[in-house]
Amino acid sequence: MKPVLVDTSIWSLAFRKKDRTIENQQVIDYLAKLVLDLDAVLIGPVRQEILSGISDKRKFNELKEGLSILEDFPIKTEDYERAAEFYNNCRKHGVQGSQIDYLICAVAANNKFSIFTLDNDFINYRKHIRIDLEKVK
Questions:
Q1: How far, CA to CA in Å, does 21 sit from each of 13, 26, 41, 117, 135?
Q2: Could you give the C-alpha distances from 134 to 27, 33, 52, 120, in angstroms and in order?
Q3: Boundaries of every domain in the chain
Q4: Per-residue b/e over 10-45, b at no fewer than 16 CB within 10 Å?
Q5: Could you say which DSSP state residue 118 is in?
Q6: pLDDT tens digit at each of 137 positions of the chain
């Protein structure tokens, strides 16, 4: 299996939310499989998003420790440049997104990763840039 860049929405579901529908549990189980198989990729900006907004120091430290099993995948200058290209191309077509979303897309595209996300914005990005989206298997 090729590596999968895991977006904040997936990590948030696994670590923060208590909503355990069957569909959500399937996503969490698939994330666990990716982590155990060493196929999950984490980048620093996603780590920052996951940890941001947690005011309870104990919960922050628990989450930080949980994420510590994964090293941040290195982001290169080419990734930032491609993220800007993706932003410009999508913007030209009326699609807006966050800088981190476009960085996720660029890192994934440059390294032939798929993106595992619950964020429907990525479906809109895919109409204008070449990215692969991961599905629960």
A1: 11, 9, 25, 17, 17
A2: 11, 13, 25, 12
A3: 4-133
A4: bbebbbeeeeeeeeeeebbebbeebeeeebbbbbeb
A5: -
A6: 789 999 999 999 998 667 678 899 999 999 999 999 999 999 999 999 999 989 999 999 999 999 999 999 999 999 999 999 999 999 999 999 999 999 999 999 999 999 999 999 999 999 999 999 999 98
Token pair in block for residue 22 = 């069957």
Sheet holding 132-133, edge to edge: 40-41, 4-6, 114-116, 132-133
- The span from the CA of 65 to the CA of 125, in Å, is 32
Give the torsion sign (CA, 98, 44, 81, 122).
negative
CB atoms within 10 A of CB 121: 16
Q: Which pair of structure tokens corresponds to residue 47? A: 């780590």
For residue 66, which of 116, 28, 108 has the smallest C-alpha distance?
28
The fold for domain 4-133 equals Rossmann fold (3.40.50)
